[in-house]
Specification:
Elements: H1 16-38, H2 48-60, H3 64-68, H4 71-111
Helix pairs in contact: 1-2, 1-4
């Protein structure tokens, strides 16, 4: 067991409404992740790639004109995912900077005999 939720499967004969519904669910999950990350929260994207793969596989079984109808929404999802990726990179960089600041302050505190400062909570604001 990998600890990841099972990937949702769309039957080969999935109609466009089911595909659109799953796509909308993914768009909402990405938007929720962006909000949580911006608020200092922790996000879990486990299974998102499987959900997107299921949509792509289902669209391959549809007529090209039907699949093309979702192209604008799929391209918007790509942009949202790119934005989420950039936000994750920024949080990772900010966390690294803050941890280095705490380590520097702790080294100084230890040199002067003060009690070290605890690290900031994960995902919290950096104080700037």
């Amino acid at each position: 067991m990998t600890g990841r939720p099972p990937a949702p499967t769309l039957p080969d004969s999935a109609d466009m409404q089911a595909i659109e519904g799953e796509l909308e669910g993914i768009v909402l999950a990405v938007a929720d992740a962006q909000v949580a990350l911006a608020g200092g929260g922790v996000i879990d994207l486990a299974g998102l790639d499987d959900r997107i793969a299921a949509i792509c596989a289902a669209l391959e079984t549809r007529p090209p004109e039907a699949a093309r109808a979702l192209l604008p929404r799929l391209l918007a999802l790509v942009e949202d995912l790119n934005g989420l990726s950039a936000a994750c990179d920024k949080v990772r960089a900010d966390t690294s900077i803050e941890l280095e600041r705490v380590a520097t302050r702790n080294r100084a505190s230890l040199a002067y005999g003060r009690k070290p400062e605890p690290p900031p909570p994960l995902g919290g604001p950096t104080g700037e």
